[in-house]
Design goal:
alpha+beta, Trna Endonuclease, Chain: A, domain 1, five-stranded mixed sheet, about 35% strand
């Protein structure tokens, strides 16, 4: 597989994450939900517990900068939580059971991506 730039890699990772979640029965509510300068990669509904799940996707082609899941810094977590609050506000949702998941994708080989789903990755 040729090298993908950061944007292409992120897009491919998100596509794989959507397929992964759909295969697990999740209903995809939004992709790339933007509010101001921030973005949540995927907002989905978990079929098992009915939770609304805000999913951050991190994709890497190599481990030069560490494993993808470690790229979710405290600042990034805070940003995702803030955008989730704005999502509730914008959609006039007063009460909703939700959680924050991380999907980490290691894409060294396009034909066999390694996908790790961290449920309730941060609060």
């Amino acid at each position: 597989m040729g090298y993908m730039n950061k944007k292409q890699l992120g897009k491919k990772g998100e596509e794989l994450a959507v397929v992964f979640l759909k295969d697990k029965g999740f209903k995809i509510l939004h992709q790339n939900y933007r509010y101001g300068k921030g973005e949540i990669d995927i907002i989905a509904k978990d079929p098992e517990d009915g939770y609304t799940v805000f999913v951050e996707v991190k994709t890497r082609q190599n481990l030069d900068y560490g494993e993808p899941e470690y790229a979710i810094t405290k600042n990034k977590q805070e940003q995702v939580k803030k955008i989730a609050e704005l999502y509730f506000y914008e959609n006039e949702i007063e009460e909703l059971t939700c959680r924050f998941d991380v999907i980490a994708i290691f894409l060294e080989n396009i034909n066999s991506p390694v996908i790790n789903h961290y449920v309730n990755a941060f609060m």
